[in-house]
């Protein structure tokens, strides 16, 4: 699903910067270094056109405060969005604008620090509770993606970098709010599948759910036709709740076509499937909160959904093991599902 790379024989080795932001701060940058040239425009142009299509929208207030009839309609709509898209916009969620703005500002302050300050959190292991880095996993990649990131574990144990000073208080409030929203959305999804909330909460140990706060920055690129923010991939966890700044660049795949995401005002994009992030002229920043099962929970298809006509397609695996393997590997579409797939597609 990702675009093909340039032939290795055409690439000339060059020094590796610590981050894309450090690279773009250089006044001499006029072209994409070979290490980041992941696409060949002569072979990728017009192969996967980007279309305009309306992504489903979920009114959160009707899910939590609506009449029984309104809630039933939202639950049905939520179930269809998950089945047919894997993405939906959430509006009227009740998370204050001032908190959303403060989280974006505080994350930007982190990325604006000197490389030496951010480097204190350069991850040595994929499960470090605070990890700063570039690309996806530069230790195993032949090429790099045009993206820097900060990943912070927020639940069941909360962590925070020491700088900027505002980060701890803002991120603690923000992750608590998005975690609560995620749990309400999961209740609606369970209901749409005919599953009991208590059964799923117990099976996935959601009282000790794993939540990570991930900030992503995609600085301006001198040759956006060559570089890519992230390739096609699926996110780990149950739900990814995405907050974006005003620079568009996110695309989702639906019906075999890439659809450009144009966020509604004061909305979140909730992701249960593939995404691809691209950047061209302006700095794009996104903040994702991932709500996931407990790291020790064994995740497998709910027995209530397995029938003769719908056989079990995946075996069980401890979520923490799945996450660690996914984070330590190259980023490639849904390849991690091969670890637990019982039947070939």
TrEMBL record:
Region called Disordered, residue ranges: 1-22
Coiled coil stretches, renumbered: none
InterPro entries on file: DIOX_N, IPNS-like_FE2OG_OXY, IPNS-like_sf, Oxoglu/Fe-dep_dioxygenase_dom, Plant_2OG-oxidoreductases
GO MF, any single term: metal ion binding
Pfam families: 2OG-FeII_Oxy, DIOX_N
Domain Fe2OG dioxygenase: 205-293
UniProt feature, compositional bias: Low complexity: 1-19
Keywords: Iron, Metal-binding, Oxidoreductase
Keyword Nuclease: no
Family: Belongs to the iron/ascorbate-dependent oxidoreductase family.
Classification via PANTHER family: OXOGLUTARATE/IRON-DEPENDENT DIOXYGENASE
Protein name: Protein DMR6-LIKE OXYGENASE 2
Lineage of the species this protein comes from: Eukaryota, Viridiplantae, Streptophyta, Embryophyta, Tracheophyta
């Amino acid at each position: 699903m990702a675009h093909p790379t340039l032939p290795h024989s055409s690439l000339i080795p060059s020094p590796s910067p610590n981050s894309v932001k450090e690279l773009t701060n250089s006044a001499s940058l006029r072209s994409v270094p070979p290490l980041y040239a992941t696409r060949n425009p002569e072979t990728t142009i017009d192969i996967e056109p980007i279309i305009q299509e309306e992504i489903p929208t979920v009114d959160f207030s009707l899910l939590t405060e609506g009449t029984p009839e309104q809630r039933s309609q939202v639950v049905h709509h939520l179930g269809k969005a998950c089945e047919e898209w894997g993405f939906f916009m959430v509006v009227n969620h009740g998370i204050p604008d001032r908190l959303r703005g403060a989280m974006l500002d505080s994350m930007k302050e982190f990325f604006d620090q000197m490389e030496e300050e951010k480097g204190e959190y350069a991850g040595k292991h994929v499960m470090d509770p605070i990890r700063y880095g570039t690309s996806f996993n530069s230790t195993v990649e032949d090429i790099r993606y045009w993206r820097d990131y900060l990943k912070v574990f927020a639940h069941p144990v909360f962590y925070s970098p020491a700088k900027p000073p505002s980060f701890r208080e803002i991120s603690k409030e923000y992750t608590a709010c998005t975690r609560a929203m995620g749990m309400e959305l999961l209740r609606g999804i369970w209901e749409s599948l005919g599953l009991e909330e208590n059964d799923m909460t117990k099976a996935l140990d959601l009282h000790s759910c794993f939540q990570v706060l991930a900030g992503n920055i995609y600085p301006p690129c001198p040759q956006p036709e060559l570089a890519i923010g992230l390739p096609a991939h699926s996110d780990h966890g149950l739900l990814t709740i995405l907050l974006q700044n005003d620079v568009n660049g996110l695309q989702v795949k639906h019906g075999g076509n890439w659809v450009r995401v144009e966020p509604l005002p004061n909305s979140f994009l909730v992701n249960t499937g593939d995404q691809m992030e691209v950047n061209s002229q302006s700095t794009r920043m996104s903040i994702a909160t991932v709500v996931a099962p407990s790291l020790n929970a064994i995740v497998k298809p709910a027995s209530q959904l397995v029938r003769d006509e719908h056989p079990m397609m995946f075996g069980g695996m401890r979520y923490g093991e799945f996450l660690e393997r996914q984070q330590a590997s190259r980023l490639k579409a849904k390849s991690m599902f091969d670890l637990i797939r019982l039947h070939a597609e």
